[in-house]
Amino acid sequence: MPAADADPSVILEFDGVVKAFDTTVVLDSFSMQVSRGERVVLTGPSGRGKTTVLRLAAGLDAPDDGRILIFGQVASDAGGILIPPEERGISMVFQDLALWPHMTVFGNVAFGLEVRAMSSDEVRHRVMGMLELMDMASLASRYPAELSGGQRQRVALARALVVEPEILLLDEPFSSLDAILRSRLRRELVDLQERLGFTMIHVTHDPQEALEVATRTVEL
């Protein structure tokens, strides 16, 4: 149960989190609160733990010390992962996008719904609705190798958003794209966030990207 004094606007909290890999301490007593509807951008040099923050939030790793709370409930602590990734209401877009090359655009986006045992009609309705939102419906039968970089990025975002997450995590999603396309996709992302209302944590090395995307910037 959430703590009695928990702030209901805080959707995600890192409380004194420590994380090390071998002998390298990546996060040392890291604390951060994220409120519902924020677009938080994590910045800072390589090796400061930005991706680690996302992985801990998603439940892909557990902290060595401290706690991670979601909606006021402890999701992970030094004892391990208490709320599994699939129950956190969180989606993540990885830097390499991680699209399945043997699946069509439709199949990639549908995967997260199909594992929830939804009916085929409901899956199709939600997938096509999301692809329409991304201006990708006409490409539903194509494979990732047949898409441009920007189109693959939209598929990755569609796959993350179709499950209606409370929190979207993005790990340098535009780093491999040219400057003009990056700028356009950043504007599209902010528009989507404002229309759909999800909370967002976005990692980038690009100061211009942070300026265009963030409602708040956290430097690690």
| Number of DSSP strand runs | 10
Radius of gyration: 17 Å
Topology pattern, helix = H, strand = E: EEEHEEEEHHHEHEHE
| Mean pLDDT metric | 91
Termini separation (Å)? 30 Å
Query: Can you tell me the overall shape?
Result: globular
In short:
With 220 residues, the chain is of the alpha/beta class. It is built from 6 helices and 10 strands; from the N terminus they run βββαββββαααβαβαβ.
Give an overview of the whole structure.
Helix content is about 30%, strand content about 25%. By secondary structure, it is α/β, with parallel strands linked by helices. Strands 2-1-4-5-6 form a five-stranded antiparallel β-sheet, with helices on one face. The chain is globular and about 50 Å long.
Structural topology:
Elements: E1 10-21, E2 24-35, E3 39-43, H1 50-58, E4 65-70, E5 73-77, E6 80-81, E7 90-93, H2 105-114, H3 120-133, H4 149-161, E8 167-171, H5 179-196, E9 199-203, H6 207-213, E10 216-219
Parallel strand pairs: 3-9, 3-10, 7-8, 8-9
Antiparallel strand pairs: 1-2, 1-4, 4-5, 5-6
Summary tags:
220 residues, 5-stranded antiparallel β-sheet, 5-stranded parallel β-sheet
